[in-house]
Amino acid sequence: MAGKPTSGAARKAPAGLEAFERLGIRSEIDLLLHLPLRYEDLTRIVDIAEARAGESAQVEGVVRSSVIDVRPRRMLKVEIADGSGVLSLRFLHFNPAQARQFSPGMRVRAHGEVRSTLFGPEIVHPRYRLVTDSTPVPRQLTPVYPSVAGIGQGLIRAAVAKRLGRLDLPETVPPEPIARLALPRLDQALKLLHAPAPGVSMAAFDDRSLPEWRRVIFDELLAQQLSLRRARRSRAALKATPLGDGAWVGRLLSALPFALTRAQQGAFAEIARDLVGEQPMNRLLQGDVGSGKTVVAALAACQAIGSGAQVAMMAPTEILAGQHFAKLAPWLEPIGVRVGWLAGSMRESEKKAVRAAVLAGEVDLLVGTHALIEDSVQFMRLGLSIVDEQHRFGVAQRLSLRSRSDLLAHQLMMSATPIPRTLAMSYYADLDVSVIDELPPGRTPVLTKLVADTRRDEIVERVRQSVAEGRQVYWVCPLIEESEALDLQTAIDTHAALAAELDPIPVGLVHGRLAGADKQAVMRAFSAGDLKVLVATTVIEVGVDVPNASLMVIEHAERFGLAQLHQLRGRVGRGAARSVCVLLYRRPLSPAARERLRAMHETTDGFEIARRDLLQRGPGEFLGARQSGQSLLRFADLERDVELVEAARDTAAAMEGICPDLVVAHVSRWLGDREDFLKA
Ligand code: ADP
Ligand code: MG
């Protein structure tokens, strides 16, 4: 920690387990796996005269003077000399005790970036300690650990050093794969990572190509693979009700106003086959925005209902769930399906009535939001649960919906976000995937234009034109994450401004704070064409379906994530008319924002977008890891470590047969109580 003598922190009484727990450290192995962020080289002391400006250096000298300046602001300035020259240490934050330490004659060892000034070299906010002329220099690089307030580096270093001193870490991986990958033993790897000898390439640490790093990453991935295999086996032992009656499926197919695409047929055939089985289905239906997943889900629901089961369908937002309801009811009710609706915004008495009907078996398909799991909904005979946009739900939520009855329900998840290959091999190894890889006929790809917001007037003119041609328009305002209130205000202001500019064109407004019924009313008016322009926050992000809308304007597009922009853009291009998506951006653009906008301009392919998104942001988004609050892989990077993912997968398969006790030891070392989360 800057400005604090590290030796002092180490001498303090242990801050207790509680402090370490805040770092997620509960056991010896947790501590050993608390690996440094970076290292400082304190093994060398250079002469002050040789310390080069702009570089990090460690110097040692005797205090000549120590003064507190007040201009231009209060700071402590300590001059030290080592015979070759004089250097100033400058502290902007310091306490009186610290200032008193530096009495003339004291010996100080200081480390930091050297700057050259008119008055000679100086280090601002050095890390330092008081030493004697016989204090040894460390022989290893000094680790800098991830930490939180109240836990000094010294405390962590001391705890780790103590454990490393008497390290007894039995190997939990058979020697063969370790030898093939040319990796060191785990105990040796950890020793080196905590205390590397000087001269090791820092680049190999940073890109984690060092064999010691790769060993840790491999072990982590192996634990994940073993755990996934275990989850798959325990699922195979579970029973679900076979749902094999296809009569209602036929009814829906003949009632639909269109024929299924080849890809939809293929995906449904796979789902239908799963439903017939005694094992609970665990399948992801993946298809780009607009590819027609809903009808496939409806067919699955028909097969379940025709076989005597109830079906739950859950979507992440009320608007999306409402759209599903609005789409499914007219398809399903005429063929005899009783469709129910449950959402958080309903009155308690209404909810109660729906819950009673569900429990009595009087509802065949229940559509809704989180309310489906948050409230105590009991089904009479739940046979299938369908989760739309599954990556937007937390892992725990998904688990909860699945375990709603004694027999496990079959589960179908839907997502427009493709799973990158490495994720498919790791987190989703336990999941069967069906892909809809073609759009329904008669669509024209959306044209994406990047326009600086200085040309907003032209875009408003364009909106007017579109409406004159009988088309409808979405105008999306960004979500301002820091402030929901500000966010709302922006949408309200934008709506007022556009309504005035476009007068007399009817302009609607929908945002997250509207009550459910009001939201539905606005959406209905837009669907019916009574509203021509819809100003919206990202509540329209998923699932909204108005084919006549052919222009979308996204304000401050630079603030959106790539997946989000892709989802939004998917709201247009649903009819036969040529659709346009205008990304209004404001300069200056960060390099990441520039990349995102470029990607949007260059491709409409959901897979390519997902790939670029993963490169930019890492896999967390795909996993719902944010919601679950668990970061499941700490060291591995699924893009970078593909080779290790594959090796871990093969090793996991081999280990189960030959060394089941190592499997147990390895999984408990790495996952402890976190294992449940991997089963989702
Ligand atoms: P998504 O996969 O994004 O959820 P939807 O299920 O909402 O897509 O389908 C998008 C639109 O395409 C809907 O209006 C739906 O009725 C329509 N659609 C789905 N399948 C077909 C098809 N085979 N032919 C024509 N239109 C279809
Ligand atoms: Mg959808």
Provide an overview of this structure:
By secondary structure, the protein is α/β, with parallel strands linked by helices. The protein folds into three domains: 44-137, OB fold (Dihydrolipoamide Acetyltransferase, E2P) (Beta Barrel), CATH 2.40.50; 208-439 and 637-680, P-loop containing nucleotide triphosphate hydrolases (Rossmann fold, 3-Layer(aba) Sandwich); 446-603, P-loop containing nucleotide triphosphate hydrolases (Rossmann fold). The chain has 28 helices and 21 strands. It starts with 5 loop residues before the first helix and ends with a helix. Bound molecules: adenosine-5'-diphosphate and magnesium ion. Residues 293-294, 543 line the site of magnesium ion.
The CATH topology of the largest domain is: Rossmann fold
**Through-space gap between termini:** 40 Å
Structural class: alpha/beta
The whole-angstrom Rg is 31 Å
Instruction: Compute the number of helices.
Output: 28
Query: Mind telling me which CATH architecture of the largest domain this is?
Result: 3-Layer(aba) Sandwich
CATH class division of the largest domain: Alpha Beta
Bound molecules: adenosine-5'-diphosphate, magnesium ion
Percent strand equals: 15-25%
Would you count the extended β strands for me? 21
Number of folding domains? 3
Poorly predicted runs: 1-14, 394-399, 620-631, 676-680
In what order do the strands lie side by side in the largest sheet?
11-12-10-13-14-9-15
Shape: globular
Mind summarizing the main beta sheet? 7 strands, parallel
Which bin fits the share of residues in helices?
40-55%
Mean pLDDT: 84
CATH superfamily of the largest domain: P-loop containing nucleotide triphosphate hydrolases
